[in-house]
Amino acid sequence: MPYLGAHESVAGGLHFAFDHIQQVGGDALQIFTRNQRQWHPKPVSSKEQQLFASAWERQPSMVVASHASYLINLASAKPELIKKSIAAFVEELHRCELLNIPYVVMHPGSHGGDGVETGLKRFVKHLDEALELADSKITLLIETTAGQGTGLGSRFEELATIINNSQYSNKLGVCVDTCHIFAAGYDIRSEESYRKTMDTFDQLVGIERIKFFHLNDSKKGLACRVDRHEHIGQGEIGIEGFRNLLNDPHFVEHPMTLETPKGKDLQEDRDNLHTLRKLLR
């Protein structure tokens, strides 16, 4: 069965994320290794490494991914932003190597009004530069996006273009966000529409490229191009869409993490994970 979990806070120390995911009964964990709104965070210390490794040893089957900073935009035309983005992404990969995190999830950025084709070319060029500099074994997961504004990655064809044109295709996979693909116009609510969406992905990208999922319902309707996460079964996707995904034999051992709103007691994560587990056949 899939590894179900959530994105959890690292407030007070990276290792505390393991306490939080244990509190909600999760099997998969996503974190920010550093504040996602800062360009120049501190390096990972040896003490942080040790505490993180010790916490993980207590939950050895936990699947862990990091989400790269939202500031990074490798599709930009601005030289200064590109320079900072490449440096920040290389640092992210190095942090994950130190922490033994196998996956980094990343948005493909924004073309800034220059058009999708131009933006994708810039993204691939700068991504390859960063991967060459980092010389890392980490698998980079390009996240599907909702299609807001000038953001890239809302069409499966765009993901295929990135993967097919990168010199480091062997290091690339995909993280599918359920809210994002729904907002981008890919329906998963019925068995038929779910199958059609996944068949389309398989034809264009290859189903084997999907390594990770973000499980989020959507506050807005199909093809709205608005990224607004809702609790499982309480949004426009509805419960059947998640039943379709969770019981797909292609993804029986895939990590799937919530990115839904929650309070300090994390009860919403417990409730959403309980809802998801009830859908498993």
Describe this structure in words.
- The chain has 281 residues and is an alpha/beta fold.
- The chain has one domain (3-278): Alpha-Beta Barrel (TIM Barrel), CATH 3.20.20.
- It is built from nine helices and ten strands.
- Strand 3 (63-67), helix 3 (79-99) and strand 4 form a beta-alpha-beta unit.
Low-confidence stretches: none
Q: Report the portion of residues in β strands.
A: 15-25%
Shape: globular
CATH fold type: TIM Barrel
The number of E-state strands comes to 10
Distance between termini?
9 Å
The number of helical runs is 9
Structural class: alpha/beta
Q: Provide the domain count.
A: 1
**Helix residue percentage:** 25-40%
H/E element sequence? EHEHEHEHEHEHHEEEHEH
Second-tier CATH architecture: Alpha-Beta Barrel
Mean pLDDT over the full residue set: 98
Give, in spatial order, the strands making up the sheet with the most strands: 1-2-3-4-5-6-7-10
Radius of gyration in whole Å, from Cα?
18 Å
CATH superfamily: Divalent-metal-dependent TIM barrel enzymes
CATH C-level name: Alpha Beta
Biggest sheet details: 8 strands, parallel, barrel
